[in-house]
Give the backbone structure.
Amino acid sequence: MKILDGKVVRDEILARLKGEFAKLAGATKLVIIQVGVRIDSNAYIRQKKIFAEKIGVVVEHIKFSENCSPEEIIEKICASNADKNTHGIIVQLPLPANFNTDEIIESINPDKDVDGLTAKNLRLLMMGELQGLMSATAKGVLKILDYYKIPIAGRRATIIGRSRLVGKPVALALLASGATVTICHRQTENLAVITKAADILVTAVGQRNLIGKQFVSSNQTLIDIGNDVNLPEVKPIVGAITLTPGGVGPLTVACLFENLLKARIMKV
């Protein structure tokens, strides 16, 4: 059983990005917009700031209270869209339940959408375009599979989870890479039968120990994004697995900054 270590891949990307950003004239800036206070969001943003500092990128972290209006957030996004010194914009998700996430995400200029979540960028992915500003998590999944030479084309890939942030973009990325893709969700019947038939199984639910031995099969590649896997049960069975933390998470951050570099170069 092989451990797919995302930190190793991240560190190689970090070294390359540091050199690439250093070649550019002037600072590269990422705007991170946070609404409310969530412990997990704080942790994710902290990791992004640490990575940015290591590669010489400026981060502007803008915080709004949960009591702010959507118009306040959109106004700030529009100002960042217009700012020629801002090269990328992300809204830290999830937003509080009283906000329309689609409305806020769609206010980001797609050319600065380094999370790859606007309709324009998702549409490009849907059309099979892998060179645009793709979802950083989906890109991270492709990166780790490529690094460890796990083939995608012609393989059966099953994704558990259909969120806009993870499940759907990962499914589209694997489909564009030549996999036969199945998306499962809470209404899926006979889940174990479907997951065991997959060559590549991606879990993105966020439910600890959801995936036990009855859901996996011999020599399968298991990509655990949502910390859903009962590791002691599945480890003796599968052929390769990402750990959480340390699997796709570090690559999501690295791929976000790959997108930022792409967005910056597109405007040079």
About this structure: The domain at 136-249 is CATH 3.40.50.720 (Rossmann fold). The first strand starts at residue 2 and ends at 4.
